[in-house]
């Protein structure tokens, strides 16, 4: 029974890294939480004269470092001054060298979003006319590759370690203080501390490479480590390590002085120590939770002043519930005796944690999702639905656990006061006490009563009795309970010290086996173990999904980024509204793209510019280019526009009237030969 139970628990613990790897590998590519909303010059635009700087607009505040923004000329040489600066309102710029020539320029950016995730990308613009470029972007990007995968795993084990450390510690102090002396529970808490510390150190070590090159060779780059320590995320990781050092002192007191006070019967001193450990431990746990809140999703977006405290409460509720569940599972399967009162105390604590979890989770979901469409139309929303389903499943399993908890408590109350003859734990304790008594030996080593042959024969009879009369440990203990200790040891027979120690170990094992058999014979406790095991299994998956969720672009940002990509993001800072439409007519030289610019991109009259380029970036000399605008919401259009050709690849039209604001659908008809033609569509948001 014991080996089977331990095997199930070990399998459950082994499932943690496997689930983490499976989910995090799928979630890693979506780790960028800030989106590029616009730029000046626009992406794929053609400007007549060289600008003085390149400006990027993001969806949230980002962190810059040396080389975060680069501009490369057609030959791949640096065309920027290397001086990045923030302009406010999530806008950042880098200056350009004077006297830049015509051609296609590549802009690369590699920044860190406000919630600690790396953001990288590139786009092009042209001066005068498009040209071929020799720029080849690196295949390894920030936040991806093996470094990104390892960083994601480190994040997961950090969450798991915090849950075990805080939750199991809370269980011992609030539900079962006597469990502080149980070795498996001690190992659970210490294992949580070690896991969280190892995960935090690994994150700190990988952070520099994770947010820059993504290359393993840069993991030990001290200059990158220095830059990390100056960032918000680096400060959060260092703060977490300092708090973990404090937590180590609390653990030492809990399993040292606190346990000794209980063994020595110092109830008042133990009570005072429990009060200090509970209050101080809660403060340290809240501090560790705040290291996530100050550096991740809660620290950016709307209502950050509310979101960060709510995130701390959310993490503490998760740890109290799931970590307490892990401690309860460990105690049910490994502790010789788990009082029903401990289970009874944990039940309302778990219920309160669930209430806090649901309330804070609802607020966080609204804040990160925002719309019903984002709930099903984004990766974040779909993962959130999976998390909600798992929470519902976990609550169902918890309902069964509460049911068996009530029956276990009732059964314990009904059997209180019974003696050892009916199989209670008292009998097991008496057997254990008996087992501690070693057979007597003569201090002088001389022969006691009887000859050596008599003693040898007596020992032989004892060994035979152990082998033949006690095949079942419980039966052996049953006879021990009804046998006088002196008779069990043999009539005044002195035994060698080695043999005495062996007999003591055998009797101790028999006593423990009987105690566990009595424990496992309780049907209510067995059902509670099974339901808690199901809860723990679901909790492992839930924790993995929650970690993947924290590494996924929030739904609000994803929708905002998608809108900017589809509609051009609307005109900003007086710049024209711009969209790009790829086309493929299917004929020779039939692939390319058309960039449309509407200036000012608002209701009324607009100036239209259309730039057509071939697949290799050169100007496309199209035989014909036509446009039409339609606003389906108002049943307007199609409003046909026939631009005039200026030069090869460039058309223009003045006085393009768009009378009503809304999402206008533009249809661009491209003809590349007498018979090859296609119409492509895009939406432009007119304000």
From TrEMBL:
Keywords: Cell membrane, Copper, Membrane, Metal-binding, Signal, Transmembrane, Transmembrane helix. Residues 454-470 have a biased composition (Basic and acidic residues). SUPFAM superfamilies: E set domains. Residues 1-34 form the signal peptide. Residues 33-127 form the CopC domain. It comes from the Bacteria. The chain crosses the membrane at residues 156-176, 188-206, 241-261, 273-295, 315-334, 346-363, 383-400, 532-551. It is a multi-pass membrane protein. GO terms for biological process: copper ion transport; response to copper ion. Residues 411-499, 552-590 are annotated as: Disordered. InterPro entries: CopC/D, CopC_dom, Cu-R_CopD_dom, Cu-Rt/internalin_Ig-like, Ig_E-set. Residues 411-436, 486-499 have a biased composition (Low complexity). GO terms for cellular component: periplasmic space; plasma membrane. GO terms for molecular function: copper ion binding. It is found in: Cell membrane. Residues 342-413 form the Copper resistance protein D domain. This is Copper resistance protein CopC.
């Amino acid at each position: 029974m014991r080996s089977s139970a331990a095997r199930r628990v070990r399998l459950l613990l082994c499932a943690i890294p496997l689930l983490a790897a499976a989910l995090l590998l799928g979630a890693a590519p979506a780790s960028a939480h800030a989106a590029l909303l616009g730029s000046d010059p626009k992406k794929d635009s053609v400007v007549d004269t060289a600008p003085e700087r390149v400006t990027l607009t993001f969806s949230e505040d980002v962190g810059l470092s040396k080389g975060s923004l680069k501009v490369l000329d057609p030959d791949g040489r640096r065309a920027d001054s290397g001086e990045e600066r923030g302009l406010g309102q999530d806008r950042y710029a880098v200056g350009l060298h004077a006297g830049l020539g015509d051609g296609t320029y590549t802009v690369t950016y590699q920044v860190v979003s406000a919630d600690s995730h790396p953001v990288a990308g590139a786009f092009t613009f042209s001066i005068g006319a498009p040209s071929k470029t020799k720029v080849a972007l690196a295949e390894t990007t920030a936040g991806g590759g093996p470094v990104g995968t390892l960083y994601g795993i480190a994040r997961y084990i950090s969450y798991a370690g915090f849950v075990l450390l805080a939750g199991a510690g809370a269980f011992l102090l609030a539900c079962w203080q006597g469990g502080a002396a149980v070795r498996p529970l001690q190992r659970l808490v210490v294992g949580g501390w070690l896991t969280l510390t190892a995960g935090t150190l690994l994150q700190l070590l990988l952070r520099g490479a994770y947010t820059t090159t993504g290359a393993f060779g840069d993991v030990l780059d001290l200059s990158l480590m220095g830059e990390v320590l100056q960032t918000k995320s680096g400060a959060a990781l260092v703060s977490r390590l300092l708090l973990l050092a404090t937590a180590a002192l609390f653990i030492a007191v809990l399993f040292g002085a606190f346990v000794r006070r209980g063994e020595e019967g110092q109830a008042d001193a133990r009570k005072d120590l429990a009060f200090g450990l509970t209050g101080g431990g809660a403060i340290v746990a809240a501090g560790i939770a705040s290291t996530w809140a100050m550096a991740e999703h809660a620290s950016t977006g709307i209502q950050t002043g509310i979101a960060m405290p709510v995130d701390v409460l959310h993490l503490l509720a998760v740890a109290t519930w799931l970590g307490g569940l892990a401690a309860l599972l460990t105690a049910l399967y490994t502790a010789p005796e788990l009082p029903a009162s401990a289970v009874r105390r944990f039940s309302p604590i778990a219920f309160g944690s669930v209430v806090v979890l649901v309330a804070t989770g609802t607020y966080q979901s609204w804040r990160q999702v925002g719309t019903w469409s984002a709930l099903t139309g984004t990766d974040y929303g779909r993962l959130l639905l999976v998390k909600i389903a798992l929470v519902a499943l976990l609550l169902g399993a918890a309902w069964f656990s509460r049911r068996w908890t009530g029956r276990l408590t009732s059964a314990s109350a009904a059997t209180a006061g019974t003696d050892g003859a009916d199989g209670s734990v008292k009998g097991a304790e008496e057997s254990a006490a008996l087992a501690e008594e070693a057979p007597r030996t003569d201090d002088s080593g001389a022969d006691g009563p009887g000859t050596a042959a008599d003693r040898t024969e007596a020992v032989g009879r004892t060994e035979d009795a152990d082998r033949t009369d006690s095949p079942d440990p419980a039966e052996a203990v049953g006879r021990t309970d009804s046998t006088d200790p002196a008779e069990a040891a043999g009539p005044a027979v002195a035994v060698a010290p080695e043999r005495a120690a062996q007999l003591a170990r055998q009797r101790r094992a028999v006593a423990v086996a009987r105690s566990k058999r009595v424990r496992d014979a309780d049907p209510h406790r067995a059902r509670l173990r099974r339901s808690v095991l199901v809860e723990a299994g679901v909790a492992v998956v839930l924790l993995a999904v929650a970690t993947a969720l924290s590494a996924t672009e929030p739904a609000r940002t994803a929708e905002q980024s998608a809108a900017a990509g589809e509609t051009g993001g609307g005109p900003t800072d007086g710049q024209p509204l711009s969209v790009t439409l790829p086309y493929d007519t299917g004929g020779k030289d039939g692939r390319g793209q058309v960039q449309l610019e509407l200036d000012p991109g608002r209701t009324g009259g607009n100036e239209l510019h259309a730039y057509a380029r071939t697949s290799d970036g050169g100007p496309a000399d199209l035989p014909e280019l036509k446009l039409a605008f339609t606003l389906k919401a108002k049943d307007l259009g199609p409003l046909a526009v026939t631009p005039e050709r200026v030069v090869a690849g460039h058309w223009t039209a003045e006085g393009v009237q768009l009378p009503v604001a809304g999402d206008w659908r533009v249809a661009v008809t491209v003809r590349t030969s007498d018979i090859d033609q296609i119409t492509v569509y895009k939406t432009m948001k007119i304000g």
